[in-house]
Q: What sequence folds into this?
């Protein structure tokens, strides 16, 4: 809600400022400004269209296209300023029509995120329901007490953890009454560790790296009354970005965006998912965004719980700061709950705390 109010306020301020500027200049300057506004709006709209077209061509595999796609929601930020200015000030009909194109694209891509979810409408027909949380602990940096407080307050049936340190793993013994079944695999540095807390019996637990030397992932079987649930807890490697700093190190220009290891991890994970029969839930920190090819690959096999029943963008990262730069809210969605088609999402939400890197994500699923 706050972000929506901010967007509307920026748009109104931009339009008011533009009109004020035009009222204080001569006719020749007005015409120049209108031409500049038309040109800016046209160039922006064509750039968005070009990116969309590139994503369905062989050039999609180019690193710079994949990098741009990873930050897809940010393509539409200029609309906050350009859309009202072009529509109100430009006298060019093509420019006004073109600026409506990215507006329409945004509505198609993200409009359903801000409508009431209908997923819970069939609640009367659903079977056994259970709740799942995925939470990257950032090697325990939020502090043991904060982590325990978050998990206890949410009270989900299953908690999947990434970046599990020995200190935090030991502290989970205090939650044994609430979570009698625990499969914890911390690592010394915490970065590659993982674990699951469960109210349901854990019939099987296997831990392995999806690519040798990388983060640990888990495959578990949970006893859910009359049926078994296969749970995968994954943590994929982030893309490798290289570049150069210009203008006294103030400007970073990327020169490489490499997802080779992540692509291999994802291929292995999907092979593991394909090898099991029955209901499947795949959760974790995937280090991919919705614009990434990896997300498209995952959603060919599985359903994104947040897309099914969440509200808003669902961003989970970063929670507080990015590379020591404070952020007022998370900027990217990289933590997910996916499930097979024989499950349905009733609710999904991003937590209001976590930190310092990730907010947790919870989902209520039913058979």
A:
């Amino acid at each position: 809600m706050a972000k929506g109010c901010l967007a509307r306020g920026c748009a109104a301020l931009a339009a008011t400022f533009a009109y004020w500027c035009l009222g204080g200049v001569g006719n020749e300057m007005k015409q120049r400004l209108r031409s500049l506004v038309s040109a800016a709006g046209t160039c922006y709209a064509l750039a968005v269209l070009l990116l969309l077209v590139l994503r369905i061509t062989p050039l999609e595999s180019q690193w710079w296209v994949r990098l741009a796609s990873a930050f897809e929601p940010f393509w539409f930020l200029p609309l906050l300023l350009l859309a009202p200015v072009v529509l109100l000030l430009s006298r060019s009909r093509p420019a006004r029509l073109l600026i409506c194109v990215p507006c329409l694209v945004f509505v198609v891509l993200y409009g359903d995120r801000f409508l009431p979810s209908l997923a819970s409408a069939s609640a009367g027909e659903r079977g056994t329901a259970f709740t799942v949380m995925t939470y990257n602990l950032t090697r325990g940096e939020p502090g043991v007490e904060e982590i325990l407080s978050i998990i206890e307050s949410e009270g989900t049936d299953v908690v999947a953890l990434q970046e599990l340190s020995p200190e935090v793993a030991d502290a989970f013994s205090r939650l044994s009454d609430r979570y009698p079944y625990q499969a914890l695999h911390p690592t010394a540095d915490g970065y590659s560790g993982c674990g699951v807390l469960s109210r349901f019996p854990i019939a099987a637990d296997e831990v392995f790296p999806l690519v040798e030397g990388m983060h640990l992932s888990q495959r578990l079987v949970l006893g859910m009354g009359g049926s078994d649930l296969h749970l995968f807890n994954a943590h994929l490697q982030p893309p490798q970005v290289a570049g150069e700093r210009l203008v006294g190190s103030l400007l970073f220009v990327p020169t490489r965006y490499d997802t080779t290891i992540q692509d291999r991890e994802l291929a292995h994970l999907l092979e593991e998912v394909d090898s099991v029969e029955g209901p499947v839930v795949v959760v974790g920190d995937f280090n991919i965004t919705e614009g990434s090819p990896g997300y498209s690959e995952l959603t060919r096999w599985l359903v994104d719980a947040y897309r099914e029943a969440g509200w808003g963008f669902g961003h989970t990262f970063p929670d507080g700061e990015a590379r020591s730069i404070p952020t007022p809210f998370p900027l990217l969605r990289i933590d997910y709950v996916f499930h097979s088609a024989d499950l349905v999402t009733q609710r999904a939400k991003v937590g209001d705390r976590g930190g310092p890197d990730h907010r947790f994500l919870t989902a209520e699923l039913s058979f």
User: Anything to note?
Assistant: The chain has ten helices and 16 strands. The longest helix spans residues 27-54. The chain has two domains: 2-112, 119-366. Residues 119-366 form a domain with the Deoxyribonuclease I; Chain A fold (CATH 3.60.10.10).
